Amino acid sequence: SGNFFLLAGPCAIEGEEIAMRIAERIVEITNKLEIPFIFKGSYRKANRSRLDSFSGIGDEKALKILKKVSDTFGVPTVTDIHSAEEAAMAAAYVDVLQIPAFLCRQTDLLVAAAKTGKFVNIKKGQFLSAESMKFAVDKVREMGNDQVILTDRGNMFGYQDMIVDYRGIPTMQKNNCPVVLDITHSLQQPNQTSGVTGGRPDLIETVAKAGIAVGVDGIFIETHPDPANAKSDGANMLHLDHLEDLLTKLVAIRKVINQF
Amino acid sequence: SGNFFLLAGPCAIEGEEIAMRIAERIVEITNKLEIPFIFKGSYRKANRSRLDSFSGIGDEKALKILKKVSDTFGVPTVTDIHSAEEAAMAAAYVDVLQIPAFLCRQTDLLVAAAKTGKFVNIKKGQFLSAESMKFAVDKVREMGNDQVILTDRGNMFGYQDMIVDYRGIPTMQKNNCPVVLDITHSLQQPNQTSGVTGGRPDLIETVAKAGIAVGVDGIFIETHPDPANAKSDGANMLHLDHLEDLLTKLVAIRKVINQF
Amino acid sequence: SGNFFLLAGPCAIEGEEIAMRIAERIVEITNKLEIPFIFKGSYRKANRSRLDSFSGIGDEKALKILKKVSDTFGVPTVTDIHSAEEAAMAAAYVDVLQIPAFLCRQTDLLVAAAKTGKFVNIKKGQFLSAESMKFAVDKVREMGNDQVILTDRGNMFGYQDMIVDYRGIPTMQKNNCPVVLDITHSLQQPNQTSGVTGGRPDLIETVAKAGIAVGVDGIFIETHPDPANAKSDGANMLHLDHLEDLLTKLVAIRKVINQF
Amino acid sequence: SGNFFLLAGPCAIEGEEIAMRIAERIVEITNKLEIPFIFKGSYRKANRSRLDSFSGIGDEKALKILKKVSDTFGVPTVTDIHSAEEAAMAAAYVDVLQIPAFLCRQTDLLVAAAKTGKFVNIKKGQFLSAESMKFAVDKVREMGNDQVILTDRGNMFGYQDMIVDYRGIPTMQKNNCPVVLDITHSLQQPNQTSGVTGGRPDLIETVAKAGIAVGVDGIFIETHPDPANAKSDGANMLHLDHLEDLLTKLVAIRKVINQF
Q: Tell me, what's the ipTM?
C-alpha cells in the first residue's frame, strides 16, 4: 500500500488478557488504515535503573503470549533480547528479534540474533551516530542474514534529555534497510533522580509527524489502555484511545510524501 | 491561504543586480504557490569567524537595495541588526528587524528593535532552550510592540554539529507568536578548523519537511543562483534552481497538516 | 612568583562601599598569597534573561568606582563591554576590557576593544570550540594589540547544564596568550524556567582545582560577602569568607605544577 | 600510603610474553612510587564497531595469563565481562570484575558479578549521569557484596567527541565507594567513519592531572610498549615508556591534595 509499517504494543508483556486486548484494538485500527502491523512486547526488562523495577512475568510465559497474539490475529511479533543465549529461545516464538540500544555494539548478541534467520531490528544507541550503524548492519549481514531493520530512539542531549536527529533517518536508509522511528523512547527523559525514567507524552504527535515527513519506513510506538498503571515506561506510552487519531494523521502525511 | 510564509534571499546583499534577480525569481515561485514572501538580505555580516571574511558592501548601499527590492516587487523585507544604534537606521528601509542568535539575550538590542515599531524576528540562540525564549519575547512586548516572530536555527551538538529540536516549535508557539524554522543555519557545521563554517545542504529537504509537518508558521531559507561563489554561507545555501521543487513539496505537506 | 593570577570581585558594581570592601579583602588575601590580582566588576548587565533583572547603577557611576578601587589599592581592574561604542568609554577607567561569551564573535566589538590599547579578555562562547578562539585572538592582534587573554566559562551540555572541557585550556594556550578559567560561570545552570540562572556553588573547589592542575594562567571568580542578596549571579558567587581557603589550596597545587 | 591506586595494563591480553613484560614494568614503577597496582587486561573484546576487529586470543588462554601475572608479581588483576555467564568463569582467575560502560544498566550482569563475591568495578555509561550510578551500586550491594568501584570514562559530547565531567567524581563518591577515572577511554573519539575509534593521546596528562586534583581514588590507564601496533585501542594507549613520568607527576599532586 506504500504505507509505513507499525511496531506497536505495550512496553512489557504484563499478562495474556491485556496483551490480547491491546493487540485486538491495534489490529482493528491498522486494518482500517492499511498499515502493516507487528505486535511488540518485551518478555523481560533487563536494563531497568533500579533493582526493584518490574522485570517481567517469566520469559516462557511471556513468549507464549506473544505467540498466541500472533496466532490469533495473524500478525508478526517483535521482542527484545539481551544476551546471545536468548536469541534462539525468543526466535522460537517471535518473528523479529530486537537488539536494545545499549547493546547494539555487542557483537555476540548481533551474531546470535542473525543466526536465527529471523528479522533483526537493531536500535541505534543513544550515543551512536547514524553513520556508525552500518557496522552493526554488517555484523548481521556477514552472518548471511539480510533481514535487518534499524530503529532510531533519539540521542542523548545533556544528562536528562534526548533529541531526535532526523538527519539520521536518510543516513541510515543508505544501508538499504528499513528505518524505524521509535516515538516512545525518543521522548524519554533519562537519569531522573528518582531512578524512574520520565517522559514528554504531549510531544508524541510532534515527533511522529516529523518522522513520517522525512520518510521513515516504520513507526515504533508503545501504547497501553492505562499508561499510568503500566508496569514499565508509563511516562511515555500513548493511551490506546489516542492511537487511531495519531495514525490517521500520519497516514495522511505519508500519502503526500509518497507522491514526491 | 493557510499557507506557511517564507523568509528567503541571499545570505548577504552582495550587489543590486543579483539581489533583484534572486528576488524576482522567488516572487515568481511564491506567487505561483501562494506563499507569503519576505525578502531577506544582510547588509552587514558582523560575527564572522575570521577578520578577512566578507562583511558587506556598505550599510546604506545594501539597505537601499533592500528598499528597491521591496518597492519593485511589493514584498516586505527583513535584515539583521547587531547593535542598538543600528535599529533605527535599518528600520528606515526594512519591515522586519532580525536579532541574530548570538545576540538574542542583549536587552539593549531587543529594546531598540522593539521601539522602531517594526516586526522583530528573534533567532533562538544555539545555546538556549525554546522555553527560555519567552523572556526575549517579553522584552519586545513590554516596549509595547506585539509584532514578534521567533526563529529556530538549531542547537549546538558537540562543537562541530547542530541538531534541530522540533519539540521547540510547539513550545515557542505557546508565546502566541509565529515560529519560523531557519533551514539554512540549522544545517551549519560550526567550529571548523578553517574558520569557515561548513554545512550539509543535502539535508535541506529533510529538515524542511519535518518543520512543516510539526506546524511551523514560516520557513527561512537562504538561496543563491551560485552558492559556491556566494560571498558568505555558501556551504549551506540552496541553489535557486531547486527552490520551487522544495517549496512545492512543503506546500503539499502543509495542505495535509491544515486539515487536522 | 610563578603563581597564577586572579580576576575577582562581585558580579556587578552595586555601590561604592561594597565594592571597596570586597576589593580590600581580596587585596589582603592575594598579597598574603602572592597572587597577582585584577579587580572585576560589571558596570552594566546587558544580557539578563529577564527585563526586570538588575542591570546596573549607571555606567559612569560604576566605572568611577572601578577607578577608585584601582587608585586606592593599586590594583588593575577589568570590566565587560557590550558594544563598540562602550570600548573607549570603559577604557578611560579600567585596565582590561572583557568581551562577554555571547559576543565573542562580534568583530566590531573586538576591533573597538583592541584599538583602545588595553588588555582584551575574550570569553569563549559556550557554543564555541577552544580551537576556534584563535580567530577571535587574530581579530585583536591584527589591530596591533597583542595583549589578549582568553577565558573559558564552560560549554553548553544540554539546555540546562554546562561542563568545563579542560582539554580546551592547553588548546587555547597554543595562541601564546594567558588562559583563564572562569569558575563562577562554568557552574551556571542556564535556561531555568524562572528566567534566573541557577548554579552549583558546592562544586567551586572541584572545578578550580582541576583548572590549576591542568595549568591555567589565571582564575576568574566572583565573590561577595552576601551572595544570597547580591544583585546578580547570586546562585554561583563564592562567599568572600571562603576565598582565602580556596586560594590557599590552589596556590599549593600550583607550586607542585610549577615544578614539572 | 594515602596514594591513589592504579588499574593499568594493555587494552587486551594479546599474549603471555607481552602481558608479563608490561606487568613487570608497571610493578617496578608502582613499587617505586608506592602506588597500589591492579593489572588490567581484557580477555575478550565484545563490543568492537567492526566484525573484523581483533576480539581476543581465546577466553581461557587469556584468563590464565592474567592469573600468571597475578601469581608472578603478587598483584591483583581486573578484567571485563559481558554476560552473566562470564561472571563465574572470570572470577576463577581475577580479583576485580569490570562491567563495561555500555552494559552498566544490565541487571543480570551486575547481579551475576556481585554474586561472585569479587570486587565489581562498574564503568559509568557515556550516556548516564553520575547521580544515576547509585542505582547500579545498589544492584551490587543488594546481593550482599559491598566491594563496588565506580569508574568514569567520559560523556558523549556530540557524536564524535567525549568530555570528562569532573563534577561527577565527588558526586559518585557520595556512594561511599572508590571512584576511578579512566584516562584512556575518556579521550576516545567515537563514531569515526572508519569504524575504528580515534583518540587524543596528547591530552592524557591534562585529563589525569585534573582527576587527581579533584580527588579521584584511582586512575585507570591502558599502556603498551608499542601502541601503534596494539591489537585494540592503539589510538589512546599511553606508551609504557611515558608511564613513570606521568605517575610521578600525579603522585606529587596527590601529596598536596592529601594535605587539605
A: 0.94
